[in-house]
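Reproducibility note. Readers wishing to regenerate the assembly model reported in the main text can use the exact inputs given here. Chain order matters: entities are listed in the order in which they were concatenated for prediction.
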Amino acid sequence: MGKYTALKEEAFEANMQLPELGLVLFTFGNASAVDRDKGVFAIKPSGVPYTTLKVEDIVICDFEAKIVEGKMRPSSDTKTHAVLYKEWDKIGGVVHTHSTYGTAWAQAIKDIPIFGTTHADHLIADIPCAPPMKDEYIQGDYEHMTGYQIIDCLKDRGLDYNEIGMILVGSHAPFTWGATAAKAVYNSAVCEEVAKMAHLTLQINPNAATLKEALKKKHFERKHGKDAYYGQGC
Amino acid sequence: MGKYTALKEEAFEANMQLPELGLVLFTFGNASAVDRDKGVFAIKPSGVPYTTLKVEDIVICDFEAKIVEGKMRPSSDTKTHAVLYKEWDKIGGVVHTHSTYGTAWAQAIKDIPIFGTTHADHLIADIPCAPPMKDEYIQGDYEHMTGYQIIDCLKDRGLDYNEIGMILVGSHAPFTWGATAAKAVYNSAVCEEVAKMAHLTLQINPNAATLKEALKKKHFERKHGKDAYYGQGC
Amino acid sequence: MGKYTALKEEAFEANMQLPELGLVLFTFGNASAVDRDKGVFAIKPSGVPYTTLKVEDIVICDFEAKIVEGKMRPSSDTKTHAVLYKEWDKIGGVVHTHSTYGTAWAQAIKDIPIFGTTHADHLIADIPCAPPMKDEYIQGDYEHMTGYQIIDCLKDRGLDYNEIGMILVGSHAPFTWGATAAKAVYNSAVCEEVAKMAHLTLQINPNAATLKEALKKKHFERKHGKDAYYGQGC
Amino acid sequence: MGKYTALKEEAFEANMQLPELGLVLFTFGNASAVDRDKGVFAIKPSGVPYTTLKVEDIVICDFEAKIVEGKMRPSSDTKTHAVLYKEWDKIGGVVHTHSTYGTAWAQAIKDIPIFGTTHADHLIADIPCAPPMKDEYIQGDYEHMTGYQIIDCLKDRGLDYNEIGMILVGSHAPFTWGATAAKAVYNSAVCEEVAKMAHLTLQINPNAATLKEALKKKHFERKHGKDAYYGQGC
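Running the prediction on these inputs yields the following structure tokens for the assembly.
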């Protein structure tokens, strides 16, 4: 077994979850997993269909997005993943999809308002939509700067990446992260479901109010922090 | 075979129907079944994915939500189930989901109007949306008080829990119940379908009128009461 | 092989197509097939889930909706089927579903406008929505009168049942028919798809115009009548 | 192996992808593949369900839409395919579907605006909606003229068929093409997904702006042209 086999398998499994959860059409998405000790992450190769993807196709890169191991070209979004791993040292996985409802909100350039407990179970802020990138960043090192677009948006909003695992990049689509690649995939599915529910909520009631503070706090704390009582505590 | 095996199997089967019917994403839901003679109910353990759930994982609790048997922590919504079993002595099962359309109506804090016979086949009132809970109840014994939020809403509306198997809790999501756990699951699926149809009805005709009295009565009585002629009479 | 076995099989196959095509939830629908020579039709028993339905459960009735053969109670909508077979001597099958989009239009009490060639490939009128039934018909022989509600609506609109295989009954849901039970099922699926497309068309363009006459004529005649050139001519 | 077996297989595989990708109901669609050396294309027979379609049913036609080989009648849209192959000598496949969202935009007679990078990854113009055809063309050689309706629309907009693989025909539905039949199928799925996202974008934000020039250029060039870096470069 190779030095990076376990990491490649983790990235492979996370990638294969994306079509299973209905989050990607064709190759419109990618997942990665990091190994902090080795200073590398494993990511999907670019443009390879999920139906033919194999563990050994997964590419290993360092945090400068340089290929460390692998015969294929890594995802065209590799530099975005690299920046997030480099800047945020507590994340273990990153996912990017063009999932339908999340992408529609990104195209509408609107934050997804927090309307209910489904949302608050996962984060207690609106899901932020970073503004579309500036022309000089697009024409420059685009994917690298996409990472900083995400990081800067969280900073501007005063949000902590440990408490919010998802963002929309305006005119583009969602990016999510988490303690593991599997958790980042989970956050992608949550983002899509919450995006759909928020859209329907506004269709049913265009004046829908956002969630009251007490419910935000209660639901988030049920699942997170020292007094969490959701799950099996492991 | 253990004392509670049959009850656990009933709860297990009901829980497994939830993902099959498309009513839950990941662990966003739970079903329970009661044994009135033994004074206990069986409920899903908290945060366990449906893909790995086993009959023996099901937790047995009493009507004070105390664990009677089981190695896992029960659903974080256990106290809500307990209150409903305690107060409503004719129900045999309770289900809670965050199904997409039902949750959107709950987030919109709107009753689901009765627009057609699909709805009237199951209940002849609008599906009520209980108001979001008061802050003191949220900060106090939240899940326990959620049960009373449901019970009080029905009382305020003059509705009988035997004639209406579903409710929305404002800003949260649907809860349903029935004579058996399977019937409570059935009601969850009906609630979701009726929620979707009502949303579409208003999209097509924002001035859509609710169902006339004669059709409400006819369709409900086809399926319920002494002159019912739907089904095989068993 | 019994006298009605082939007919029961035809009805059974048609019924089993309904869940497969996503047109029914639980038992919300029924299909029947007629044998004109024997003066009977075969219909789904009432309230029996599709997952357990067997050929031998299918009930044989005459055109007065009297049971001719079968141990189970026939569909609660049997009298509607009986009236249609009795009055329209060229139809071979009838289907009733509560399919989501068709039912939403019925609940909105709106005809489905003919917006495109998908619609015109099958019928060249708007899909009519019969008005909700009068109270005296609802309180009287309801399902029998539902048949006449459908027949009268077509008469009022000057429509020929041979050229239009589908209708909505206001506040209720779609009914469809055809030369065979399979064709009636096909029409149910077409009705649902056309209902969804028409809804989306109006969402995208609230002022969308209905189809021009030349396209209505062309598409309908491609598939129907003596100069049809769609299909294999058999 | 017959002279056209490989071509028939290519067309067969492309056609079978259409129901798998959820792009067709029943027989509402057709795919073809061309062999430029032999001057023929292979197309689905008319009205044959995908569930029973076999490789040997595929019909071989020349660019005048005359049958060269095959026992069945070719798709009623064969002349449209023939015109596109004749006029556009670099395309290898053509697909026509009545996919739900693409058809809704066609029925709304609206171009699909370019709102995001998902769209720009594939084409950098709005997806054009050709006007509904003139009456004399409908009454004349309809399917032949449909081909010219598509070609003329691109000309009028100054668009190059090599850079845009999809169009809507007003009041009708999408047509797509590509270097191979498989690529034309891919474009049909992209068209449907982009159509759905654009609809949702406008639902969420009726004033949504179209994509900025820098992002259009960047995303299209990531995937196309000499500096493309998406995929494996093969």
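We highlight two features of this model. The radius of gyration of chain D is 17 Å. Strands of chain D lie at 29-35, 40-43, 59-62, 67-69, 93-97, 129-130, 166-169, 174-178.
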